[in-house]
Amino acid sequence: MVYCRNTSGQYGKATIDGYYQKLSAAFAELTKQAPRSGDGFRSLKVDCANGIGALKLGEMERYLSQGLSLQLFNVGTEGRLNHLCGADFVKSYQKPPQGM
Questions:
Q1: Domain ranges of the chain
Q2: What SS3 class is residue 31?
Q3: 25 vs 63: CA distance, rounded Å
Q4: Containing H/E element for 73?
Q5: In 10 A of CB 67, how many CB atoms?
Q6: DSSP codes joined into one string, 34-72
Q7: Alpha carbons 49 and 63: distance in angstroms, whole number
Q8: Rg of the Cα atoms in the chain
Q9: Which GO terms describe its biological process (predicted)?
């Protein structure tokens, strides 16, 4: 958002809405490279590590493609931040986060 603001909007809108639009458009372009299953539906499972990302990804979901099934895990309703989940847990223990 800072770059958007500093370029007077040439890079995009310096708002949360603008950020979600830009990020979801980039994600859509990236996923065009991934193969689809037989029904043409894509599924994305996200470990939110009991952090703020769960809330923000929940807000961003409406910007994502209709052909995408989004499943959020470790969304902060239970547990502590990064406890038995998150990137460091997966790297250190070489196993999936709790609940996935």
A1: 1-34, 36-100
A2: helix
A3: 8
A4: strand 68-73
A5: 12
A6: SPP-TTS-EEEEEE-TTSTHHHHHHHHGGGS-TTEEEEE
A7: 22
A8: 16
A9: hemopoiesis; UDP-N-acetylglucosamine biosynthetic process
Q: Are 31 and 65 in contact (CB under 8 A)?
A: yes
Asked if 51 contacts 79 with a C-beta cutoff of 8 angstroms, the reply is no
Which two structure tokens, joined as six digits, stand for 23? 């990020």
Asked whether 69 and 16 are in contact (CB, 8 A), the reply is no
Residue type present at position 81: L
Identify which of 57, 54, 47 has the alpha carbon closest to the alpha carbon of residue 89: 47
Whole-prediction pTM: 0.72
* Confidence label for 17 from pLDDT (cuts 50, 70 and 90): very high
Whole-number pLDDT of residue 96 = 92
